[in-house]
Specification:
Elements (H helix, E strand, L loop, with lengths): L26 H20 L7 H19 L23 E3 L10 E3 L2 H24 L6 H24 L16 H25 L4 H21 L5 H32 L3 H27 L13 H4 L1 H20 L35 H5 L16 E2 L29
Antiparallel strand pairs: 1-2, 2-3
Helix pairs in contact: 1-2, 2-3, 3-4, 4-5, 5-6, 6-7, 7-8, 7-10, 8-10
Length: about 425
């Protein structure tokens, strides 16, 4: 099955030593730093493959953040860490260098701030969940259990992106890097894309189970509107980096608008409103033609990303016969029975679906690693260092980073055998 989802590249990062030689005065502190250093490298390496099991990725993710806890949050004398409010004394003692998923690989950001590390790691994990969903959807056949896995992966990704957005205020001055992964508009685009794609799963299942056309139309409308919102969020960024992503949003907006009108036409037919049904189907055909044209523009556009091929997908190809069938039936019944006027204005779509709207899965920072005892925290003695702390002031990195060598996502040329024509039914 041709790839249905567009995916942006993972963020690259520089190796971080976690040495803090002038701060560490006991073996317990040195052991924590060594374990963090090793786990970080191993975890980032696992993110290169969407074929890895989510349980393994989630476990590694939780364990890394738990180990990193003492670099982010204070561990008070009474040992009460339930509120996660106070900053760690170590927050600004290690520098982290990361690239951005949508900017040139040479445009890295260098920040001495542990929160920057946390949020950057979170973005990469959220991107991995998106890639996991695409990896599953590219199989020969995707059954109900796997469709649920795609839906879950996208909801988890959305929840992690929301966590990042809710905490970017902790990064002093990060907003100045337009188009970076810490830009609120970029994060909103990712969040909305994840929710829209999760709703695509719901639409495919609703079609497969032959739910009411009015429900399918409303879901398609909601999804089309979300893609339009994504496009608006990133419209002012550099087209050299963002054009391809925008074209993906635009073609998905037009495509799901076509589906919305197709099922609106079917719903109007069932109510014997043939004139309005004719107008709806013709509007759907126009939307499809625009989506088809945008597929060509998308393939030729500039910018990073793993390219989708929706025009080769059976779910995409199925919409024209569907629209033609509804239009032909509406015209025949109107000519023989109803003789209704075909309105010049396109019929209104129902923009609020009653069921099937996807919700993000909330993400919270995990509890601290058990090795972060009060004694271990005290083993980091910042009074013995003369390091000048810049308190997280970000700057553009001076060194470029190689792109992450991501493993290729499997792709088959077989069409699914189900009713909907979608591989995620």
């Amino acid at each position: 099955m041709s790839h249905w989802f567009h995916r942006n590249p993972l963020k690259s990062t520089a190796f971080t030593k976690f040495e803090l030689k002038k701060v560490i005065n006991k073996e317990s502190a040195s052991k924590i730093c060594g374990e963090i250093r090793l786990r970080r490298s191993n975890f980032l390496d696992k993110l290169r493959s969407a074929a890895n099991e989510p349980q393994e990725i989630e476990s590694e993710f939780q364990q890394y953040l738990a180990l990193f806890y003492g670099f982010v949050f204070d561990i008070p004398e009474n040992g009460n860490t339930s509120d996660n409010i106070s900053n760690s004394k170590l927050r600004y003692f290690e520098r982290f260098v990361w690239s951005n998923s949508m900017l040139n690989i040479n445009e890295t950001i260098d920040v001495a701030d542990s929160w920057f590390e946390v949020l950057s790691i979170c973005v990469n994990v959220a991107l991995w969940y998106m890639k996991r969903g695409a990896w599953i959807s590219s199989k020969d056949e995707v059954r109900e259990t796997e469709a649920k896995q795609i839906h879950s992966a996208l909801r988890k990704a959305a929840g992690i992106f929301i966590f990042v957005k809710e905490n970017i205020e902790k990064l002093n001055g990060m907003y100045e890097f337009a188009g970076s992964d810490m830009d609120s508009k970029v994060l909103d685009a990712y969040i909305t894309q994840c929710i829209a794609e999760a709703q695509e799963i719901t639409i495919a299942r609703a079609i497969e189970l032959k739910h009411k056309p009015s429900l399918i139309s409303a879901l398609a409308t909601e999804t089309a509107n979300k893609y339009q919102c994504c496009d608006k969020l990133i419209e002012n960024f550099n087209p050299l980096n963002f054009e391809k992503w925008r074209k993906y949003f635009q073609l998905k907006h037009r495509f799901y608008s076509a589906y919305a009108y197709a099922y609106l036409g079917e719903s109007l037919l069932s109510e014997d409103k043939c004139g309005a049904a004719i107008r709806a189907c013709k509007e759907g055909i126009q939307c499809y033609n625009m989506a088809e044209e945008l597929c060509s523009k998308y393939a030729k556009s500039s910018g990073p990303g793993f390219v989708a091929k929706p025009e080769q997908h059976l779910f995409f190809r199925r919409i024209v016969p569907l629209l033609d069938r509804h239009l032909k039936k509406a015209e025949q019944e109107n000519d023989f029975i109803y003789h209704q006027m075909v309105p010049e204005e396109r019929p209104l779509l129902e923009e609020k679906a009653s069921f099937g709207l996807a919700q993000p899965e909330p993400f919270v920072y995990p509890n601290k690693f058990e090795g972060w005892t009060i004694a271990a925290y005290k083993a980091f003695d910042i009074s013995k260092t003369n390091i000048v702390v810049d308190f997280g002031k970000p700057k553009k990195g001076t060194k470029s980073l190689p792109p992450v060598k991501e493993e290729k996502v499997y792709e088959t040329d077989k069409d699914p055998t189900n009713h909907s024509g979608c591989s995620i039914s």
